[in-house]
């Protein structure tokens, strides 16, 4: 391996000639730059420099080995005395305003037992997360209409509770993809969980394991896949794998084979990202940090990725089936025809998901389409051995109940677990699981449904579900927790 001095490396700091240092190795990322799923800008910021800490905050250590060709590693840096001194001086520089703000907010955090529902965690997370992290996690696409609608649609479903049922014992155990789980909800996949907490996905694994719920591991995890698997509480802890199919089908195949070998019990292929959605909160934060004028052109600011394969289509299902024996489900279905096609292609199920409102704004809320999806599958005789999952906007035990009543086998929950982890680490995730369980217990008892099998479609009144014009009760908790980020810099003066 060749040695280069830091001044030599610093020369390669342009789009068409771009080196960076990560963990003591130099990588030439010139060709990879346009393909980076997180956009070009973050890499350009580190061009010609040591990017280790920026890299570590989002990626697992083995990310480059797993996803890129070995040729990108071109050498290792050697220190010159003056650079060592500069680096030390930089490290000793005073904390930024933001770090001080976060430290103070952390000091003022309520104790964990003062938090009573998912929104409480979101409210605290809003104060303690960095602008970058809050922007990344809380964002939806464009005007965030779908993101909000995901939850508010649940307000248009009312209950028809039964009485005189023996509800002295409530049993929430269920089966998903043939595996037993204590509770009918799972932690869904979110890329780069270290943005929320330094222990990232491993903290989610441990909390999920202790509470016996399923965790879906993202392709773009920030901990290494091996470490996430090693973090299991027991050898029979259930994990699923979320897959992004990339243009490099061989690399995708290797990832699928590794997932199967490590005991993943389901492969969830994300199908709603031929291009990444525009998350304006994130874009504003990043732009403002650099050069607000770039906002006007939008050049290089959108996390558009050419890494994912936009050509993915129904004819690829045969290939997916040929490379794994894991049950395959499509994640990101938002209309009944695609659910029916999935069943006709012999898949094991779908996740009705609009990516938490992060992809297509004005895609329907997922709970709104659940009844029509179930109806279509039943009409076509495709509802046996085909499981329908749902995620997006689930914030209450009663939301979980409503989704199950309408036919969901299980529900995925995303942001709330990230917020809980950001605030209190694993303990926060466990507390939130307990709170969802407590809410669902109360809901099942008051609804007269002692087991999951007793939760029936006639227990919910969905006559208003399709009516987007009905008045909803104001969701004060959600409203309070929702917005922190106002446009700043030039935009705020408009
Ligand atoms: C920060 C963040 C990152 C995400 N990353 C992924 C991902 O890598 N792959 C994926 O299929 N879905 C991803 N999602 C979507 C979630 O799997 C899920 O569909 C969504 O979060 C559910 O909505 P909720 O956050 O309202 O519960 C992500 C969501 C968030 C909030």
From TrEMBL:
Catalytic activity: (S)-lactate + 2 Fe(III)-[cytochrome c] = 2 Fe(II)-[cytochrome c] + pyruvate + 2 H(+)
InterPro entries the record matches: Aldolase_TIM (IPR013785), Cyt_B5-like_heme/steroid-bd (IPR001199), Cyt_B5-like_heme/steroid_sf (IPR036400), Cyt_B5_heme-BS (IPR018506), FMN-dep_DH (IPR000262), FMN_HAD (IPR037396), FMN_hydac_DH_AS (IPR008259), L-MDH/L-LDH_FMN-bd (IPR037458)
Record's keyword terms, sorted: Flavoprotein, FMN, Heme, Iron, Metal-binding, Mitochondrion, Oxidoreductase, Transit peptide, Transport
Residue span, FMN hydroxy acid dehydrogenase domain: 110-465
Domain Cytochrome b5 heme-binding: 1-78
Enzyme Commission number: 1.1.2.3
Highest taxon of the lineage: Eukaryota
SUPFAM superfamilies: Cytochrome b5-like heme/steroid binding domain (SSF55856), FMN-linked oxidoreductases (SSF51395)
Pfam families to which the protein is assigned, alphabetical: Cyt-b5, FMN_dh
Gene3D superfamilies, A to Z: Aldolase class I (3.20.20.70), Cytochrome b5-like heme/steroid binding domain (3.10.120.10)
A GO cellular component annotation in the UniProt record: mitochondrial intermembrane space
GO molecular function: heme binding; L-lactate dehydrogenase (cytochrome) activity; metal ion binding
Cofactor(s) of this protein: FMN
Family affiliation: In the C-terminal section; belongs to the FMN-dependent alpha-hydroxy acid dehydrogenase family.
Assembly description: Homotetramer.
PANTHER family per record: L-LACTATE DEHYDROGENASE (CYTOCHROME), S -2-HYDROXY-ACID OXIDASE-RELATED
Name of the protein this chain belongs to: L-lactate dehydrogenase (cytochrome)
Species: Phascolomyces articulosus
């Amino acid at each position: 391996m060749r040695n280069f001095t830091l001044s030599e490396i610093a020369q390669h700091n342009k789009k068409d000639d771009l080196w960076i240092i990560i963990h003591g190795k130099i990588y030439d990322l010139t060709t990879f730059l346009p393909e980076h799923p997180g956009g070009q800008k973050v890499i350009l910021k580190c061009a010609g420099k040591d990017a280790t800490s920026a890299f570590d905050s989002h990626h697992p250590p083995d990310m480059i080995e797993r996803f890129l060709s070995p040729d990108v590693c071109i050498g290792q840096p050697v220190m010159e005395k003056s650079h060592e001194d500069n680096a030390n001086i930089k490290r000793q520089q005073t904390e930024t305003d933001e770090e001080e703000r976060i430290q103070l907010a952390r000091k003022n955090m309520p104790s964990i037992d003062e938090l009573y529902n998912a929104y409480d965690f979101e409210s605290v997370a809003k104060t303690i997360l960095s602008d970058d992290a809050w922007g990344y996690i809380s964002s939806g696409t464009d005007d965030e209409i779908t993101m909000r609608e995901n939850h508010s649609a649940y307000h248009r479903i009312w209950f028809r509770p039964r009485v005189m049922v023996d509800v002295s014992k409530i049993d929430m155990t269920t089966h998903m993809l043939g595996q037993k789980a204590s509770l009918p909800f799972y932690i869904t996949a979110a890329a780069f969980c270290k943005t929320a907490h330094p222990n990232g996905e491993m903290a989610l694994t441990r909390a999920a394991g202790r509470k016996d719920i399923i965790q879906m591991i993202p392709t773009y995890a920030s901990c290494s896949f091996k470490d996430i698997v090693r973090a299991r509480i027991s050898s029979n802890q259930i994990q699923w794998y979320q897959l992004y199919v990339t243009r490099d089908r061989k690399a995708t195949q290797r990832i699928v084979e590794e997932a199967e070998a490590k005991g993943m019990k389901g492969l969830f292929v994300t199908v709603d990202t031929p291009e990444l959605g525009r998350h304006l909160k994130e874009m504003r934060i990043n732009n403002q940090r650099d050069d607000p004028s770039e906002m006007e052109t939008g050049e290089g600011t959108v996390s558009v990725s050419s890494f994912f394969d936009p050509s993915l289509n129904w004819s690829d299902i045969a290939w997916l089936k040929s490379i794994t024996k894991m049950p395959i489900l499509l994640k990101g279905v938002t209309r009944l025809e695609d659910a029916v096609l999935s069943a006709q292609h012999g898949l094991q199920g779908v996740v009705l998901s609009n990516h938490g409102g992060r992809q297509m704004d004005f895609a329907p809320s997922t709970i709104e389409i659940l009844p029509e999806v179930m109806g279509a599958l039943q009409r076509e005789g495709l509802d046996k051995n085909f499981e329908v999952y749902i995620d997006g906007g689930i914030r209450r035990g009663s939301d979980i109940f409503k989704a199950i009543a309408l036919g969901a086998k299980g529900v995925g929950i995303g942001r709330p677990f990230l917020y809980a982890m950001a605030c209190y680490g694993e303990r926060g995730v466990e507390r939130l699981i307990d709170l969802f369980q407590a809410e669902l217990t109360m809901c099942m008892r008051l609804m007269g449904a002692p087991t999951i099998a007793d939760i029936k479609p006639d227990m919910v009144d969905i006559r208003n579900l399709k009516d987007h014009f009905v008045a909803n009760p104001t969701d004060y908790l959600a409203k309070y927790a929702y917005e922190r980020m106002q446009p700043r810099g030039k935009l705020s003066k408009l």
